[in-house]
């Protein structure tokens, strides 16, 4: 058998992680996406966005497999792919050792379970996002080194490694009861070669790490297994050393097959992180919430006068968007973009989301010394809230007075006044007055009487799924007639089956063009509103639709292509997973949203 490195299905992927970076593994056991040493580093395996020539690592049987199946070990990020042939059965156990410092590894243990299976492996390393071929030389005891500029990789395989056609190859047989390991370790090329790890010990440590973390989960409600898998996935997207959480493990996976809506999500969006903080806080994971708040302090550097929508993992403020013309894109979806130009946009909603999250954290005994941060954010917003912005969906069209953005300005002033009423009474009174002014503006200009709905922007006709969050954040009761009418309009115009689009591309010019899929998180927000309206059966139906859009491992992408139900967009998508967690909490609490502020 030879590997087919043109995966046809985004949802065919699993993810493994060590809390510093992640790898995507296709259902045929090909690793087709790997960035080292960090989530946002340049990819050294990039066939996900190109061809075999752009790098991948395949292990497979030399004979055609009869069956292939896969699963995560319970409550871990350890993947097992079982291959059955006429001669026997093996399991490929893929994981990344945790807490390894500056030398991340991928370990692939092949366990013989029945008979004997001959396997072959092919590893094509391509640094610089699939463009640069490394220099190759032999190291001690048959180990192989691959070096390209500042990057180096050492390969320690259980078999004799050859190098031909610019790829490492090997062939070996695994019999029942045997376990053989293949290890890849990244390091800086000017540094010493890292010590070899003990694969079996590393597996035990990784399994213990993930299960110990999962055991801290405090959740009793619907879809327990899916919620726990989502929480594990979110934890896997949190950088171990900085506390920042990337929005997804991937870049430039298309929101429309063959389209141009292809974006790099390997950055820490304040919005996504605050939603996740709420999910972590309400499921017993306070450490992650505490670490994110510390990351936030470092990112805004104590003077949040120019808060950005997102930052790099280490808090770096710069993100130049550029196109990799040597990559043909997943499913020929071009351009392939790295970096993200939305970093320079004004997105007013993030002020409310950050202040709200800090206030909730304070209710849980965290961030008690955050008065100055809350005040600085609120004072900066005083100068901005009357301006148009790019909105939650990061429109690349003309700025508008987006309704959801204004509502989150209300949240910012409302929460700041409540939290700092005693410590800063004069400013708190000013913020209460501003909150009331913003509220009047939204109710006057954000609800379109002709449409009978809250719309995308002031005095606009277009609908926007983001306004479903209005009752979730406490701006308006879900049973208010205006909200009921808004839900009716969204059901008529933005629903497809039991999934929901974030807006209509026919009526909304977002500066990009082209259609996209139904947005997983928006469907879950509608389920939240249903739950608050007492429509429990409808809420559960939409929640189940989101569950059913996940792949066989429980991973969610950003969107669902409604023509055939396949997953599209970056995967796994933090916003989708945290929406699932928070909606499960809401439904399990009879519609009460998971918040305290």
From TrEMBL:
Domain of life assignment: Bacteria
Domain (GH15-like) ranges: 221-584
GO-annotated biological processes: carbohydrate metabolic process
UniProt cross-references to Pfam families, sorted A to Z: Glyco_hydro_15 (PF00723), TREH_N (PF19291)
SUPFAM superfamilies for this protein: Six-hairpin glycosidases (SSF48208)
Domain Trehalase-like N-terminal: 8-151
GO molecular function terms noted in the UniProt entry: hydrolase activity, hydrolyzing O-glycosyl compounds
Gene3D superfamilies membership: 1.50.10.10
InterPro entries recorded: 6-hairpin_glycosidase_sf (IPR008928), 6hp_glycosidase-like_sf (IPR012341), GH15-like (IPR011613), Trehalase-like_N (IPR045582)
Name by which UniProt lists this protein: GH15 family glucan-1,4-alpha-glucosidase
Organism encoding this protein: Stakelama pacifica
């Amino acid at each position: 058998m030879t590997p087919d490195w043109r995966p046809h299905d985004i949802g065919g992927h699993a993810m493994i992680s060590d809390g510093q970076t992640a790898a995507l593994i296709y259902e045929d056991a090909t690793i087709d996406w790997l960035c080292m040493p960090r989530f946002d580093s340049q990819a050294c395996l990039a066939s996900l966005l190109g061809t075999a020539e752009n790098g991948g690592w395949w292990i497979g049987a030399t004979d055609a497999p009869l069956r292939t199946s896969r699963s995560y070990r319970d409550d871990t990020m350890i993947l097992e792919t079982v291959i059955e042939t006429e001669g026997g059965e093996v399991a490929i156990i893929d994981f990344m050792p945790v807490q390894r410092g500056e030398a991340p590894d991928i370990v692939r243990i092949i366990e013989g379970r029945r008979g004997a299976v001959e396997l072959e492996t092919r590893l094509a390393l391509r640094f610089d996002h699939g463009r640069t071929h490394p220099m190759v030389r032999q190291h001690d005891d048959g180990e192989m080194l691959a070096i390209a500029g500042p990057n180096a990789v050492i390969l320690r395989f259980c078999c004799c490694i050859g190098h031909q056609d610019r790829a490492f190859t090997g062939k070996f047989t695994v019999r029942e009861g045997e376990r053989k390991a293949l290890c890849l370790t990244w390091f800086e090329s000017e540094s010493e070669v890292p010590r070899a790890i003990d694969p079996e010990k590393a597996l035990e440590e990784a399994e213990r790490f993930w299960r110990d973390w999962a055991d801290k989960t405090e959740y009793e409600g619907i879809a327990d297994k899916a919620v726990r898998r989502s929480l594990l996935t979110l934890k896997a997207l949190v950088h171990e050393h900085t506390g920042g959480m990337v929005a997804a493990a991937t870049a430039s996976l298309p929101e429309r097959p063959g389209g141009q809506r292809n974006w790099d999500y390997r950055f820490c969006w304040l919005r996504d992180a605050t939603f996740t903080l709420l999910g972590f806080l309400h499921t017993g994971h306070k450490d992650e919430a505490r670490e994110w708040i510390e990351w936030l302090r470092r990112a805004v550097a104590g003077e949040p006068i120019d808060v950005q929508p997102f930052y790099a993992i280490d808090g770096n403020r710069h993100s130049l968007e550029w196109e990799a013309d040597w990559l043909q894109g997943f499913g020929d979806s071009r351009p392939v973009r790295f970096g993200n130009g939305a970093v320079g946009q004004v997105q007013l909603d993030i002020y409310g989301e950050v202040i709200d999250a800090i206030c909730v954290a304070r209710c849980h005994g965290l961030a008690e010394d955050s008065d100055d941060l809350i005040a600085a954010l609120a004072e900066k917003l005083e100068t901005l809230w009357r301006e148009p912005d790019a909105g939650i969906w990061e429109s690349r069209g003309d700025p508008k007075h987006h309704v959801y953005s204004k509502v989150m300005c209300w949240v910012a002033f409302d929460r700041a006044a409540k939290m700092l009423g005693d410590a800063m009474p004069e400013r708190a009174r000013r913020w209460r007055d501003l909150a009331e002014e913003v509220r009047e503006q939204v109710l006057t200009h954000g609800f379109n009487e002709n449409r009978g709905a809250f719309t995308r922007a002031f005095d606009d006709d277009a609908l926007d799924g983001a306004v479903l969050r209005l009752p979730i954040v406490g701006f308006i009761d879900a049973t208010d007639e205006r909200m009921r009418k808004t839900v009716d309009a969204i059901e008529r115009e933005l629903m497809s089956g039991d999934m929901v689009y974030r807006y209509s591309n026919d009526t909304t010019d977002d500066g990009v063009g082209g259609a996209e899929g139904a947005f997983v998180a928006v469907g879950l927000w509608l389920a939240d509103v249903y739950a608050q309206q007492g429509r429990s059966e409808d809420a559960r139906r939409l929640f189940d639709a989101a569950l059913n859009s996940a792949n066989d491992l429980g991973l969610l992408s950003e969107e669902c292509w409604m023509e055939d139900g396949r997953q599209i967009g970056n995967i796994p998508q933090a916003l989708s997973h945290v929406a699932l967690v928070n909606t499960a909490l809401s439904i399990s609490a009879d519609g009460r949203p998971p918040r305290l502020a």
